[in-house]
Specification:
It is built from four helices and four strands. The protein has two domains: about 100 residues, Orthogonal Bundle (Non-ribosomal Peptide Synthetase Peptidyl Carrier Protein, Chain A); about 40 residues. A two-stranded antiparallel sheet has the order 1-2. By secondary structure, the protein is mostly helical. Helix content is about 55%, strand content about 10%.
């Protein structure tokens, strides 16, 4: 019987757990990178046309409660940029790679399907090997 320590060690060292941990760390770093891109490059670019240098300062107050809707605008911009980057630099290339790797299996012209049991049979067969039906409409029957 395994001890809980050895079972835990086995669980932690499984490939999928390690891969998930790496994905979380890389994802966090990627998020920080994109947030920096938004805060340091995109927001000032938008501000150059709109006049507001930092959306995080935008807010209003109702009955002493401060609503910082500028932070929400920054978050929406970050979300859209992260989504676009993931779509154009991860999803599209992966889909193109998968499509390129797909190879259609060429259909053997010497085979056809039995009209009764749908088993693949030679076009020269006079009987189906699976259901033993006569294959009168095939090439062999007409020769």
């Amino acid at each position: 019987m395994k001890s809980w320590g050895s079972e835990f060690k086995e669980f932690i060292l499984q490939g999928n757990v390690v891969s998930l941990a790496v994905a979380v760390v890389v994802g966090a770093a990627f998020g920080a990178l994109v947030n920096s891109l938004v805060a340091d490059m995109i927001t000032p670019l938008i501000a150059a046309f709109g006049g507001q240098p930092d959306f995080s300062e935008l807010s209003f107050t109702i009955n002493g409660s401060k609503f910082t809707y500028g932070n929400f605008i920054n978050a929406v911009i970050s979300f859209l940029i992260i989504s676009a980057v993931i779509f154009f630099f991860v999803v599209k290339p992966m889909n193109a790679l998968i499509e390129k790797m797909k190879t259609a299996e060429p259909e053997d012209p010497g085979l056809t399907k039995c009209p009764y049991c749908f088993t693949e049979v030679s076009v020269d067969a006079t009987r189906c090997p699976a259901c033993t039906s006569e294959l009168g409409g095939f090439k062999a029957a007409t020769q």
